[in-house]
Design a protein that fits this description.
The chain is an alpha/beta fold. The chain contains six helices and four strands, in the order ααβαβαβαβα. Strands 1-2-3-4 form a four-stranded parallel sheet, with helices on both faces.
């Protein structure tokens, strides 16, 4: 709850007229997720967009040395929480699944995290291609700090780039990008010019 408050307070400073509610929820608990969605709708009347951003990252180690419980938690938590949130709001709003550039890598010791991030592409397609957009941002987070080898490649600046992208995606103007792997530093206008040129643009093909 303290972490949520730390996010809510600056919002009140930047946008004094904005109403902010915080709900501490176990994102792997389906009933808790549904209840938080219900409370949000009761408070605000509707939900315009859901951004599924929770997850965990195992300590990077060879499979022979990895802790099985930690490895499995990293593997399934990302998909379970995404499925639970999307199931609760799919008919109500846009849903965005936040991924990582690591989804396209095969780094020693990162099997669970990278497999789960890559599989989000298929999850987005299976849930409903017409209503899901999947993005990644190369931004340094507390979780990313647990893997020193990747931190030089992350951008520890502001969240404005990702925030602006999320607003544009949730507006509905970019729904043609549903089910695709989209980086926050992409030029959406440039991508639009290639829409007819490449029907499978940014889609994963195994």
């Amino acid at each position: 709850e303290d972490a949520l408050l730390a996010v809510a307070e600056p919002v009140g400073v930047l946008a004094p007229s904005a109403a902010v509610e915080q709900y501490a929820v176990d994102v792997t608990d389906g009933e808790a997720v549904s209840e938080s969605v219900k409370k949000c709708i009761e408070k605000f009347g509707r939900i315009d967009v859901v951004i599924a951003n929770a997850g965990s990252m195992e300590k990077w180690a060879r499979l022979a040395d990895a802790d099985p419980t930690e490895w499995w938690t990293s593997m399934v938590s990302l998909h379970l929480h995404s499925q639970l949130w999307v199931r609760s709001v799919l008919k109500l709003t846009h849903a965005i699944l936040r991924s990582s550039l690591l989804a396209q890598h095969r780094d020693l010791g990162a099997s669970a995290y990278q497999i789960s991030k890559h599989a989000l592409i298929r999850l987005a397609e299976f849930i409903d291609v017409g209503e899901l957009i999947r993005i990644q941002t190369d931004q340094l987070t507390a979780m990313g700090n647990n893997v020193p080898s990747i931190t030089p490649f992350l951008v520890d600046t502001s969240t404005e780039l990702a925030s602006h992208l999320l607003v544009r995606l949730s507006s509905g103007s970019e729904d043609w990008l549903s089910g695709r792997f989209l980086s926050a530093n992409r030029d959406l206008d440039e991508l639009a010019t290639r829409r007819k040129e490449e029907g499978d643009l940014l889609k994963s093909r195994l």
